[in-house]
Amino acid sequence: MLNVSRMQSMFYQDGELIPEPEYDPRQVSNWVNVFLQASDHEFDDETIMRTVSMKIHNGAGTISSLPEHHNRALCVSIKAPGEYNSDKASIFAAAELQSDFYRQEIRTGRVRINRELLFRRDD
User: Fold this and answer.
1) How many beta carbons lie within 10 A of that of residue 35, not counting itself?
2) pTM higher than 0.85, yes or no?
3) Closest residue by Cα to residue 109 from 43, 14, 41
4) What are the tens digits of pLDDT across the range 62-77?
């Protein structure tokens, strides 16, 4: 059975889920996955994204071809624009810029985190 929560985006923009790029096995992409603590639910979205950006900056994340937030709670996955064969530092730098963009959009009130997805209980 299809688990709809596994298909949700991590972010809302103007009240609508931001669509994630559709999976295409012919086009491999890089996602940087950052893992948070359950206690982070106490923080606002901007603080959470600041934490995500800092963790990416410090290299505290994993790289995958698909977003891990579909499979694991407490995970924020950021798509890193660029070539698949980029080196790790380039992938992390691109993801950091993207996470900073989301943080700025959160600050303006246009974007918010899908907290239901992020802080769900995995069975």
Assistant:
1) 16
2) yes
3) 14
4) 999 889 998 999 999 9
